[in-house]
Design brief:
Elements: E1 3-6, H1 20-41, H2 55-61, H3 66-69, H4 77-98, H5 100-124, H6 141-154, E2 159-162, E3 166-169, H7 170-184, H8 194-215, H9 228-250
Antiparallel strand pairs: 1-2, 2-3
Amino acid sequence: MAYGSKFRSTGTLYFPGFPSGVKWLLISNAAIFIIGFFAQVLRLDLGLGLLALQPAAVVRFFFIWQLASYMFLHATPWHIIWNMLALWMFGADLEQAWGTRRFLKFYFFCGIGAGLCVVALNYALLPFGKGDIVTPTLGASGAIFGILMAYAMLYPNRTILFSFLIPIQVKWFVLIIGIVTFMSSFNANSGVSSFAHLGGLLFGFLYVRSIRQRRRPAVRITVGGPSLGDRFKQWKLRRARRKFEVYMKKQGRDPWVN
């Protein structure tokens, strides 16, 4: 995934900073990648393979931790570089807007949701000869695609530099990668887990939509006019007003007008 730096309308580069949630995700992903790299060079078996997401292992042996642990494994240096670059570029703004706790909740919600999609879709397509329940999935792309979807929903008109060259609004950028990802899902030999990408987009959309629905003010719908309670209150007010008017007339005064 090649994403460019965001820039403001003035043309100046914009750097979102390193809020604590994004910072520790970057550190943990980088640390695990470095440990795995040197373990492979030294031919040490640290059991990191048990952290990759394998649908068969999740369903048959209940390795449910793989639904989260696979997000911290990456295959190549470029794989982790592009994922962490996108996490910093788009995730930092979301964390600053939501706070660290909500952002991390969202990150794992999208990542685990993407993992569930990988397991479910591969098993669902297995009778058609399309599913693969043995090949492991690894990488933070599911959570990253969820971040991209949330960013596009919250800041649709912001501009990024696609491939560091082409200015494009975030909403069109996410639409394009969504279409490309969907088309890639039909290519079983692409080497990319399109199911995880699509799952991340889906769960990112569902999360932001649920937040918007909770923030909508409650609308009171009245069918057939005021309720009996409201009618009783109005009747009491009219009755009290008539009594007050009668009293004022007996005193030889007119009622106040407000």
